[in-house]
Amino acid sequence: MLLQNHKSYSGDTQKNYKSIVQSIIDKAMSDSIAFNRLEYMCDTYGPRLSGSENLNKALMWIRDEMLKDSLENVKAEEVYVPHWVRGNEWCKLMQPREANMPMLGLGGSIATPKEGITAPVLVVHSYEELRQKAGEAKGKIVLFNKPWLGYGDAVQFRTHGAEKAAAVGAVASLIRSASPIGMQNPHTGMMVYADSIPKIPHAAITHEDALLLERLQARGQNPVVHLYMEAQTLPDALSYNVMGEIRGTEKPDEIVVLGGHSDSWDAGTGAQDDGGGCIATWHAVRLLKELGIKPKRTIRAVMFVNEENGVKGGKAYADKHKNEKHHLMFEFDSGVFAPDVIGFSASDSLMEIVKGFEKYLQMVDSIKVTKGGWGVDISPLARLNRIPVMSLGTNDEGKYFWYHHSPADTPDKVDPVMLNKCVAAIAIAVYLYSEME
Ligand SMILES: [Zn+2]
Predict the structure, then answer these.
(1) What pLDDT was estimated at residue 74?
(2) For residue 154, how far is its CA from the centre of ligand 1 (angstroms)?
(3) Domains of the chain (ranges plus CATH)?
(4) Looking only at Cα atoms, what is the longest distance across the chain?
(5) Separation CA 255–CA 244 (nearest Å)
(6) Over the chain, what is the mean pLDDT?
(7) Least enclosed by CB within 10 Å: which of 33, 333, 337, 383?
């Protein structure tokens, strides 16, 4: 079906976009290609950790599929990315009894010595408590057992726990996984070291085992743990930002970028984080193309690489494309669930116009337009050139962080209907924005 180009969108005085929006929704909701491709990518190429062969194979597959979709200017732009590899690893309770503890080394961590580290455990809940117990930390494995108060709160121990523990003489550090629930499922993620403090191995264990260690400590049973890790950081590796677009008809040099990040952690297959975000943004563009919609401005899907441990893709895109005129940057990296918020960061006058998208977005689901667009990959260029930022938020009923960065982030966690709704919402928001005066 070929739809004629519509008059420009300008808030409340806009032409009625109802029929074109309905056609976007009808097409998105009857689609199975987006979900099939998400499953195929995750199942065929597996985890997509930066620097891995799996990731580059998946990226070449995306490029080839974009060509099959007849997107224009399809390309893979070279980006050098950090190359951390996990190797073998394990964690065992040694005292008062022996037991395996499911664990994941944290991204960027060093290895243990070849014989591993066997040491008593000191359980704390905060940096303040670690300061108070600094005298007890020397030679121990410090465990940060912080109850879940949200990702931002939990992630500080993942990111900086090793340097805080090393500063008081610990030989390794562990965190309770950054997740609201346990189910013996460990969650990895990025960590960093401070240059001035010795580096110690840093890993995540499960809620169940963190709570076990805490109970043992509370009873004075002095738990002892053995940690073995082979993790290492290799030289930066070649990878790619993959992109394809629909050229604009009236203002082809003005670009609306939308995307997600192609890389994932190595534990699951990154279906929610952020395979779904990549597939949804790419298929929003594919959908507009299939419908024969000819946007006024260029709409470009970018699969940014290396969000998880370096943001090298976002930075490389900013560097290479900073002289192009970007009209909007849109990112989807919050999990594929019921779409419920289009977040937007720009001037009040633009916000007023984007508010006008609500009645069209609500043809998909009860989606609100609110202040606060964000995206890790789009932020380098958006900040540099002060470009309006938009993102899709979803109502995950608290579930996103059940799977995030864990072996459980697999395609069965994605509901195909929700994926299609996200595709529709993104296509509508991006298309209307590209039509703006
Ligand atoms: Zn992500």
Answers:
(1) 99
(2) 16
(3) 11-84+235-434 (3.40.630.10), 87-230 (3.50.30.30)
(4) 75
(5) 12
(6) 96
(7) 383
Mean pLDDT of 302-316: 98
For residue 425, how far is its CA from the centre of ligand 1 (angstroms)? 19
Residue 85 burial by CB count (10 A; 0-12/13-18/19+): exposed, middle or buried?
Answer: middle
The residue annotated as part of the active site, out of 214, 307, 308, 435, is 307
DSSP 8-state symbol, 260: E
**Cβ atoms within 10 Å of 386's Cβ, excluding its own:** 11
Let me know if 16 is exposed, middle or buried by CB neighbors in 10 A (0-12, 13-18, 19+): exposed
**Does the annotation count 307 as an active-site position?**
yes
Q: How far is the CA of 408 from the centre of ligand 1 (A)?
A: 15
Kindly state the DSSP code that residue 356 receives in the 8-state scheme.
T
CA distances from 270 to 39, 74, 222, 278, 407 (A): 11, 23, 37, 11, 9
- Condensed to tens digits (0 to 9), the pLDDT of residues 176-191 reads 999 999 999 999 999 9
- Say how many Å lie between the CA of residue 160 and the centre of ligand 1: 19
Is the pLDDT at 1 greater than 80, yes or no?
A: no
- Distance from C-alpha of 195 to C-alpha of 136, rounded to nearest angstrom: 24
**Residue 91: which of 211, 222, 228 has the closest Cα?**
228
Average pLDDT over residues 139-156: 97
Q: What is the DSSP string of 160-215?
A: HHHHHHHHTT-SEEEEE-SSS--TT-----B----TTS----EEEE-HHHHHHHHH
pLDDT number for residue 12: 44
% of the chain beyond a pLDDT of 90: 96
| pLDDT digit string, tens, across residues 315-369 | 999 999 999 999 999 999 999 999 999 999 999 999 999 999 999 999 999 999 9
Is residue 302 within 8 Å of 382, Cβ to Cβ? no
Task: Specify the DSSP class assigned to residue 16.
Answer: P
Which contiguous run of DSSP H or E holds residue 277? helix 276-290
| pLDDT the model gives residue 6 | 45
Ligand 1 centroid distance, CA of 308 (Å): 7
Helix (H, G, I), strand (E, B) or coil at 401: helix
pTM for this prediction: 0.96
When pLDDT is cut at 50, 70 and 90, the band that residue 437 belongs to is: confident
DSSP codes, 122-138: EEESSHHHHHHTHHHHT
Taking a 5 Å cut-off on Cβ, the residues next to ion ligand 1 are 273-274, 333
